[in-house]
Amino acid sequence: MTTLHFFCGKAGAGKSTVAARLAQADRLVLLSEDVWLSRLYGDELKTFDDYIRLSGKLKSVIGPLTVDLLNAGQSVVLDFQANTRAGRAWFSALLAQTQAEHVLHFLETPDPVCLQRIAKRNIERPEGSHALTEAEFVHISSYFEAPQATEGFNVRVEQDEHDPGELPPTHPGMGS
To answer: What is the pTM of this model?
Structure first.
């Protein structure tokens, strides 16, 4: 069955990693918000407000593309944030234009693990990633809303695959 896969979890929870693994394992189309934003708007993307503005522009293009792919029978892994009720409403609007099934993958990763992964990502800087400070993580996390049953999504809680040794007694400073 044609399926739209999308993700909910705090920064550093592992959403993009799970998305990439799923797309590769099942040979699905992967559309990554971070990669598209970086390639299209790299120099313009400096602040959280820039992200909000540019993400809206990107969604106006990726949304119809996703609907077309789903209606053509192609399952899609959409690595765009579904971290708030309002953010998830966009996915509902896309699904309303298709007969596709959906899975909302929910990653419940402890904050210290998220912060450790962010620190590592800040050093490695994979394509589409942006440096994030601990203060920015806290600010962005203040908007986070876990999915609720009343929203009507098929939620799959993903077990965090972090190594128990990955969770430090206290998280390291975020640095640069």
So the answer is: 0.86
